Amino acid sequence: MAPRRASSAHGSSRAGRSRGEQETTGLRFAKKGGKVGLKNMGNTCFMNTGLQCLAHIEPVVHYFLGSDFKQDVMVTNPGNLKGQVAQCFSNLLKALWQSEQDVYDPRTFRKTLKRIAPHLIEGDEQQDVQEFLAFCIDGLHEELNRVKKPPRKSYEEDSKLTQKDADFAASLAWMRDLEQSQSFLVDLMQGQLRSSLTCSKCGHQSSRFDPFMYLSVPVTKEMSNVTDCIAKYTEPEELAGDERWYCEKCKAKVDAQKKIDLWTLPPVLVLHLKRFEYDPTTQQFEKTANRLNMKLSGLDLSEFCSVPQKDGATYSIASVANHSGEFGSGHYTATCRVESGGKTSGSWHHFCDSRVTEYSSGRSVVTRDTYVIFLVRQQPGQSKAGPVTVPRRQTTAQPENWPHPMEAASAALAVAMKESKSPSKAGAKSPSKSPLKSPDSSKRRSQDQKATGGSSPKRQKTLEALFSRSASGVAGGA
Hints:
Elements (H helix, E strand, L loop, with lengths): L5 E2 L13 E4 L2 E4 L6 E2 L6 H11 L2 H8 L2 H5 L11 H14 L5 E2 L2 H10 L12 H16 L13 H4 L4 H15 L3 H6 L1 E9 L5 E8 L2 E4 L7 H8 L3 E3 L5 E3 L4 E3 L1 E9 L3 E7 L1 E4 L4 E4 L11 E2 L13 E11 L6 E8 L8 E6 L2 E4 L11 E8 L10 E2 L16 H15 L2 H4 L30 H10 L12
Parallel strand pairs: 1-22, 4-5, 8-13
Antiparallel strand pairs: 2-3, 6-7, 6-12, 9-12, 10-11, 13-21, 14-15, 16-17, 17-18, 17-21, 18-19, 19-20
Helix pairs in contact: 1-6, 4-5, 8-11
């Protein structure tokens, strides 16, 4: 993460530095910035690791240390949190980037977390860093959601409108989600998947588009690259026997092909490597600990995308969460890039709670312990890390900012404008809001998408079950 100049429509860089500090878009960073450890308060390495990973993503730092997030805090949040998570996270970033201390005590953040999500701190036991990160991402989104009164979800006609053109269907689904959810986290981390089921008998296909904020990809012993995990995730799966799918055209259960496609990738792509799988023969969770290779920068993921990416699909690694040890034990650490002095590429540091050490040249960042990877999209023609780029704000009123072709996005917006003029839509009431959900129950943090294709609610439930992948095991530790 680099305290460098930011390319943003919300303000410009100011010149001038004071001794021992660097200034970027009005923000000042200490010499020690980005290299501050976090105190372990007893089985909190999972929390410390997750926080360090998030704290070394440049757009995140600039947003939460600036004034934008305060304007976005949803004080009427249904969970009545009033920005508690966002404010605590902002204060933590100030300590990590704008102070000269060697170690920071995240006690306040932990107390807030324990009050809001006791399942993550219950009994002071070690928890899974991926589950912690999912809660933080979803919790911050809920507090910063710019949609105050979402419209009622009643899109019966959408399935008819989206039967012909995939780009239009994807754009319309994106707009529908923006009608409910708009936040900095959506701008930064939300991508889109297409899930489909195809009848092997008549060729009928049922598909849908869904948002995601991270991907859980499988890991097997035969794999040698992280890209192998992505390829496996998008690999077609044949459904037969007890897993056969009910085809509405054939009016019967049939063999089918299940497929998940990467449709649009976000500015920051989060990959969760599913290293823990349940072995029915031993009745235990086993860890797949083979080392997976991965380029630190210039990683082109375009071959795994089903359509061309509007902003490209080349990424560099910003931070990595590691887990050493076996299931139910072990230890979490973070490996993050820390840049300073306006350099285009910085040094890698290892964060083991309060201990922070710089990696020697040539040491591997992605190892057999790598568990969660944060990738930041590079700008076209950019070979290494460059200036901070603020992601385009996603709103229903600006289809030009969507990651879809402009023609399809404009057509989707036209549907919404037509609906707004309809008397039946104008009188619709907004739904009652539910409290902030934990990561396990949140739609937004789930990447295991389902294909329904506009079928009946009962049929949708059946199709959703077909797209439910087995959950990864919780990697506990000390």
